[in-house]
Amino acid sequence: MTLDELLAREAIRDLMARYTTAGDRLRIGEFVECFTADGVIESEHVPEDRAFRYQGHDAIRAWQERWLLKEGAIHGATFVRHHLSTSRIELIEPRTAQARTYWVAWTDIGPDHAGYYLDRFEKIDGAWLIAHRRVRLDWEAEGSLFKSAIGNTKA
């Protein structure tokens, strides 16, 4: 592994940490900045009423702003903490990479829901960004505070 590859992997790990922290804290500008201008975030393997797909900064920003506007009605949690664990980053070319990263979200009830991200990254103007994030849900607690959250953020 070369030094450039190590630096790329660390920059991608930092990007994933910034995304997670910004999302949990509803720091919308920081969240949107994690994506390419035409970046995509979408769900997979979830019930139709909880499926989502947003493309581009404007659409992602509008979705995140709805989390703030409806904050009390979104999920009922007083805190949300996504924890990333195993992450396999594959460098495809000098400016493209992909990753599979496992996550679990904690709320007031403890482990609330879990799954993994399937990501495609692009390096633009020296910065690694999310070009496409597929959010897959594997599990949710019986009393998950997030079961209705996505539906509550639809336009």
Automatic annotation (TrEMBL):
CDD domains named among the record's database cross-references: NTF2_like (cd00531)
Domain of life: Bacteria
InterPro entries: NTF2-like_dom_sf, SnoaL-like
Boundaries of every SnoaL-like domain copy: 5-134
Name used for this protein in its record: SnoaL-like domain-containing protein
Signal peptide extent: none
Taxonomic lineage: Bacteria, Pseudomonadati, Pseudomonadota, Alphaproteobacteria, Sphingomonadales
